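Before the break, one more example. Copy the sequence into your notebook; we will annotate it together after we see the structure.
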Amino acid sequence: MRTSRTATGVAACITVIALAAGCSSSGGKGDEDKSGDGGGGKGVNTPRLKIAMVTHSGEGDTFWDIVQSGAKQAARKDNVEFLYSNDKEAKGQAELVQSAIDKKVDGIVVTLAKPEAMKAVLGKAADAGIPVVTINSGGEFSAKFGALSHIGQDESVAGEAVGEQLNKDGKKKALCVIHEQGNVSLEQRCAGVKKTFDGSVENLNVEGTNAPGAQSSISAKLQATKDIDAVVTLGAPIAAVSVKAKEDADSKAEVDTFDLNAEVVKRLKAKEVGFAVDQQPYLQGYLAIDELWLYKTNANVLGGGKPVLTGPAIVTEKDVPKLEKYTARGTR
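Here is what the structure looks like once it is written out:
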């Protein structure tokens, strides 16, 4: 079942990229190097659109920088004015979506980390005739809330892949670090790990936006529970924090993580991180903008009502040579 769902997602991704390339009068390195807010540059000759992206990102989470890189690249190509905003609190995120509705945007990209808080305002978007694409989190709520489609990875499947990898690596006791309490996607990841991992899994909640506090909590747990041999973090910034916490605790646990950035690739190379789970955030941002452009200009919908999968893929030190240049430029 996993293979067929992944294949569907990959096929959809390939299709939309091909469509986008066919509609663009430019591309490649020249377009990629342009800077700005996502507008301007040579591209399509379709009418100018305004698309808002509203996420649950906390301050300092580099994952969302990569998402924005993809969205801005698609926006340059598609003649789109790209508006980005974020709030880690569900109420604040809902207010930002309402602000986008009030601006009469042509489309909204949104995350559903805390889905119930977003239900009412997405209903208002539907009433206003504004198409919505969800990305990254809360995929199972996407269609229920009226979105065209969801772009991201299946978080449960991704967690299961981690559990299977831990089994291959001979691990026996894992600590799953949740850096944003109440985020349904993070909880699904840890639940997926528990489902397939033959050893035991304990969850630990930390405040992801407070790196010193998170480091102290992880270190204290490793000192108190000496037989933990794997620390699974659910975001790249927390992986770096966990490496430091492991050193503080004089622990021999392996740090493994969800998500990829330049720092994680550096630590994979140094063997400070065992493996990472890549969900291709650049692709999530790019495809979300591209889908809304395709919908507004050609009535296209990706995935046939099913999620468009961008991951998961297990990345190890063997993959470092082909990834370094992409993570350095902020696109992987």
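Residues 1-41 have pLDDT under 50 and may be disordered. The first helix runs from residue 2 to 23. Try to locate both features in your own notes.
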